Amino acid sequence: MLSKRERRVLALLVISGFINYIDRSNLSVGATNIQNEFHLTGTQLGFLLGAFFYTYALSQLLGFAGWLVERFHVSWILAGGFFLWSGAMGTTGLARTFVVLFATRLMLGLGESVAYPSYSRILVNDFPEEHRGVTNAWIDAGTKCGPALGSIAGALAIARFGWRSLFVALGFGSLLWLVPWLAWMPRGKAYSAPVDQSMVPSVLTIFRHRSAICTALGLFCANYFWYFLVTWLPHYLETERHFSKTKMGVFASLAYLAVGVSSVSSGWLSDRWISRGGTPTRVRKTFTGLGLALATIILPVALVRNESLAMALLLLACISYGMYASNVWAVTQTLAGPHAAGKWTAGQNGFANFSGFVGPALTGWLVQHTGLFSMSFAVAAGVSLTGAAICVFGIGPIEPVQWDRT
Q1: pTM of the entire structure?
Q2: How many CB atoms lie within 10 A of CB 73?
Q3: Sequence-separated (6 or more) residues with CB below 8 Å from residue 101
Q4: What pLDDT is stored for residue 256 in this prediction?
């Protein structure tokens, strides 16, 4: 049972993840409007949709985000990142040139790069193994409900007020989150830099381990699938399925919400299994591997003509993906332990988010040159199946790594 303080902190982390993903995904909701206003080709739109990931991924992969989280008080780092990404979101709505628009997306990625390393460091200090499935799942559900609400509310707001008003209101309005966070954020030595820095392994030391490499590769594959949905699903529903803006918002919202509900349910079930004697290795690998394998059911979505069947298959693929999403960070936190959780998470997330600009750009190129989305859906399914194999066979036993003093 979580204490009142833990519930407040977890709730604020969930809300920050919710806002995080609204901010990064709403560009796709307004993609057709922005494409028309700035006269962008499909390839240019793909690069714009992926611009966020240049700074987001590189900041983590090159060690900057992990260094901040391990060197300074993690609660203040999260607050600073939140301020930066919210300001960038609001400024996006004020952009009048493509260069400025692109730059705000880069700044958004830089601010959000500290989020997941901060979440991991806070959770690994506050929650035992048998609670990490559901706590990580709640944060993940927040990140999935962000695009869910953003799709429907964003579509309605854009239809009535235009895309610029949506970005300004969301960006500057979300700064209110900082008020309760500064009042209730975790404090104490456990959240500051460790006094004995020799207990903190370097990024190179971490990624000498096969499991670290495979968690990054597995997340790369999973992120490709998820970012394909976040960046291109609204565009697909509007252009190939000929949904109205409002109808697109409803079905995209349901898809993202299905991931969130599945994630929380799967997190709870995995923790129950562990509390009843299941090993973390068996439990976490079952959910991550099976989830990504079943997510390949997304392939026929682009092939069947029946609209109802296609949307049902889309929801099933999203529910399957939620099984993976509920357990991925619990795997990392168990392997890394409190001294390495921030750096491991940053390195893993940094590499994995290269899929954030590879995927949207590749999808844009495929759509532009084929005129259809079917090949893009096939690639997403193949990458997801590859990720399932990596999670099951590549990652070793899910137990804490014994770090040498450095």
Answers
A1: 0.78
A2: 17
A3: 34, 38, 48, 92, 95
A4: 87
CATH hierarchy code of domain 4-185+200-394: 1.20.1250.20
DSSP letter string over 26-56?
Answer: HHHHTHHHHHHHHT--HHHHHHHHHHHHHHH
**pLDDT beyond 90 at 368:** no
CA distance 322 to 237: 21
**Checking phi first, is residue 113 left (phi over 0); if not, alpha (psi -120 to 50) or beta?**
alpha
Most confident of 21-25, 151-155, 219-223, 239-243: 219-223
User: Would you call 97 exposed, middle or buried from its count of C-beta atoms within 10 A (0-12, 13-18, 19+)?
Assistant: exposed
Contact 315, 254 (CB under 8 A): yes
Residue 195's pLDDT band, with cuts at 50, 70 and 90, is very low
Q: Read off the tokens for 108.
A: 């958004």
Write the secondary structure of 103-115 as one string of H (helix), E (strand) and C (coil): HHHHHHHHHHCCH
First to last CA, the chain: 37
For residue 136, the surrounding DSSP H or E stretch is helix 129-161
List Cα–Cα distances, 113 to 110, 211, 235, 256, in angstroms: 5, 22, 26, 22
| Nearest residue to 356 via CA among 226, 218, 257 | 226
- DSSP 8-state assignment for residue 339: T
Q: Vertex 356, ends 88 and 264: CA angle to 5°?
A: 90
pLDDT band of residue 281 (cuts 50, 70, 90) is very high
CA-based nearest residue to 259, from 322, 313, 326, 329: 322
Picking from 4, 13, 281, the residue whose alpha carbon sits closest to that of residue 134 is 13
> Residue 266: pLDDT above 90?
yes
